[in-house]
Each structure stands twice: as C-alpha cells, then as structure tokens.
Write a structure and sequence with these properties.
This protein has 127 residues and is mainly alpha-helical. The protein has a two-stranded antiparallel ribbon with strand order 1-2. 1% of the residues are buried.
C-alpha cells in the first residue's frame, strides 16, 4: 500500500510505504521470544559482575551476538539437513517409480517434487 500524507515544516508531502506479507507475520517469532526471555538474565548477570552500566550493555550485546550466531547457524544446518533428506526421498521415490510404475508411486513422486519446488522457492526468496 502506498499513500501520501502531508509533512510538517516542509513544502513537500511525505510518502508512506506499508509492506505486509502474511507469511512473515510469524517469521522470527521464536527468535524474538527467546531473545526477550534471555536479555533480562544477561543484564542481571552484568549488574552482578560488572562495575558500570556501559560494561553491562557490552555484556548483554556480546551475549545477543553469540546467541544470534548459534541460533541462525542452527537454522542453516537444519535447512541443509532438510534439503538432503528431501533429495534422498525424491531419489528413492523416483527409483521406486521407475522399477514399479504405479499410481501410488507416481503420486508419492509428485508430492515430493512439489515439496522440493516449495523448498527451493523459499530458498530463492531468502537470498
């Protein structure tokens, strides 16, 4: 959605862009919840062990970076494992269909093909 509103102290109008993607509403929710749960603990640790507020902030920031790195590396690893699993299942289904052509094997192959297409479409959008 794009709309134009008046702007204060200028002779130009402000342009407002509003982006909304229903798929993105839940995206990142787990990460944000986990960070919100951990930050108070890190701040408390900093207050107990460190002498000034700047050091407390640095401690919390350090922990956020470490947690974020581990979290997203774990997500990447899981995506790679999912991709490998999908490839193996697709190859097995393809081999089954070639050796024993049936409607059941064809249906399974088509389901896996659709799952792979969705997986790679998501992967393409993340790049």
């Amino acid at each position: 959605m794009l709309y134009i509103i008046s702007s204060i102290k200028t002779d130009h109008s402000a342009i407002v862009f509003e982006f909304q993607n229903d798929d993105d509403i839940a995206k990142g929710h787990t990460y944000v919840d986990e960070i919100n749960r951990l930050i108070p603990r890190w701040v408390q640790e900093g207050v107990l062990d460190l002498s000034d507020s700047r050091s407390v902030w640095d401690w919390a920031e350090y922990n956020i970076k470490i947690f974020s790195r581990k979290y997203f590396m774990g997500k990447c690893k899981q995506r790679r494992l999912d991709e490998q699993r999908l490839h193996i299942e697709f190859q097995e289904a393809n081999l089954s269909f070639q050796n024993y052509p049936s409607q059941e094997n064809l249906a399974k192959l088509n389901v896996l093909k659709e799952q792979m297409e969705k997986f790679y479409e998501k992967k393409k959008l993340k790049v």
